Amino acid sequence: MSLPQRLSLGVEGRVAVVTGGSSGIGLATARTLLAAGARVAICGRDGARLDAARDELGGVAGPDRVLGERCDVLDEGAVGAFARSVESRFGPAGILVNNAGQGRVSTFADTTDAAWREELELKFFSVIRPTRAFLPQLERAGGGAIVCVNSLLARQPEPHMVATSAARAGILNLVRSLATELAPKGVRVNMVLIGLVESGQWRRRYATQAAPGESWEAWSAALARAKHIPLGRLGRPDEAAHAIAFLSSPLASYTTGSFIDVSGGHSRHV
Ligand code: NDP
């Protein structure tokens, strides 16, 4: 018996697509997959943020391994155009990370019908549209993998995020159906369940909620205490990215329809 010289993720040369790859967990996932040898395409809506992320990633990995394209994942035409760009630049995508999105803070009492529709549309169609557009490429690439960035709210709803929690539970269910339907096509479908991970979303909440002069460190540590997170802190984007990269890789070749919890022990489920 011999040990491999160095354990590799096995994604060298693979083409990976990360929606919402211009910030937070998506940007960290793009970095991780590039470090593991993949070529990576990212998308987002804000052109300046996207350009900054593409330049940062291209600066470390080489511009020939990075594609950045403005695309709203809710816009079917834009998602189709993004899929065509990826294939013509790199060849068929073998990895799709459905990450784009954000949570909505609202209780049942203050969620309007319009807000419910908007939230359900964002959560469902941010998975449905890219999955539909990239599926033919994932099949052609062989050993395709989809990873959805979902939330612990799917299993552990919070009343102050009622619409997001319900929509996230729907994604938990959808991933299971997709995994079954796409298995014969050689495509695995999994997800990560994120607890609280430092990102653009939390930085924006800090900017509006922190007391005058309160540092990010003090604010986020107080948040972790208030939420009773056993590991005592928020997660880092790279900690979510590592779980996503594992599920997207051949190291997880016998895992589909499943999830990895990235919540620092915040999940109360056995
Ligand atoms: P960030 O705000 O840091 O990043 C979100 C990314 O998604 C940005 O690149 C943003 O770019 C992009 N995005 C948002 N909406 C769209 C859209 N319609 N089309 C294309 N791109 C879009 O947040 P996070 O890294 O925290 O979030 C990543 C995912 O993780 C989200 O789905 C979020 O709901 C989920 N999550 C995060 C948690 C956390 O604690 N951080 C907890 C649970 C789930 P732009 O705005 O320019 O389009």
Integer count of domains: 2
* Rg (C-alpha, Å): 18 Å
H-E order: EHEHEHEHEHEHHHE
- How helix-rich are the residues, as a percent range? 40-55%
Strand order of the largest sheet: 3-2-1-4-5-6-7
Which small-molecule ligands are present, each listed once? NADPH dihydro-nicotinamide-adenine-dinucleotide phosphate
**CATH fourth-tier homologous superfamily of the largest domain:** NAD(P)-binding Rossmann-like Domain
- Portion in strands: 5-15%
Assigned CATH class of the largest domain: Alpha Beta
CATH topological fold name of the largest domain: Rossmann fold
What would your notes on this structure say?
This protein has helices spanning 24-35, 47-61, 76-90, 113-141, 162-182, 200-209, 216-226, 237-248, and strands at residues 15-19, 39-44, 66-70, 95-98, 144-151, 187-194, 259-262. It has two domains: 15-196 and 236-262, NAD(P)-binding Rossmann-like Domain (Rossmann fold, 3-Layer(aba) Sandwich), CATH 3.40.50; 198-234, no CATH class. The protein has a seven-stranded parallel sheet with strand order 3-2-1-4-5-6-7, with helices on both faces. The chain is globular. Helices cover 46% and strands 15% of the residues. α3 (76-90) runs parallel beside α4 (113-141) and α4 (113-141) packs parallel to α5 (162-182). The protein is built from eight helices and seven strands. It is of the alpha/beta class and 270 residues long. Bound molecules: NADPH dihydro-nicotinamide-adenine-dinucleotide phosphate.
